[in-house]
Amino acid sequence: MPKLLKKSIIIISIIILLALAAGIYFARGKKTPPEFVVAKRGNLIQEVSVTGRVKPAESVDLAFEKGGKVSATYVDVGKQVSAGEILVILESADLFAQLKQAEANIKAEQARLNELKAGTRQEDIDVQKVKVENYK
């Protein structure tokens, strides 16, 4: 091998080694010292802002046995309630009037029943005799 070829191979090898050494040196860069922080106790607060729909775990549909107008409400919409709690009251004026009418009908029928149990009155017999005579 000629001397010139050996010399050029050595020079190229040295240049490659220097380039590798420089690359390794600059790749490492300056090391930043670690940062130390003192740990403190505190409340962790994490806020999450999302868009979507909230569905209840349980939903119940309510209905009345009879229809009518609402006279009083005791619970606001969306409030949690427990079993047996009064939520609303319906107007009872119509039902109260029907109750009084039924009570009056009972008294009238009781009076009529008592009359029938007592027997026929003489006036009724006389009226019936007159009616029979008139039909003849």
Automatic annotation (TrEMBL):
Q: Which residues form a coiled coil?
A: 92-119
Listed under GO cellular component are: cell envelope
Q: Where in the cell is it found?
A: Cell envelope
Keyword check for Coiled coil: yes
> Which UniProt keywords are present, listed alphabetically?
Coiled coil
Query: Per its record, how is this protein called by name?
Result: Uncharacterized protein
Tell me which species this is from.
Candidatus Staskawiczbacteria bacterium CG10_big_fil_rev_8_21_14_0_10_38_10
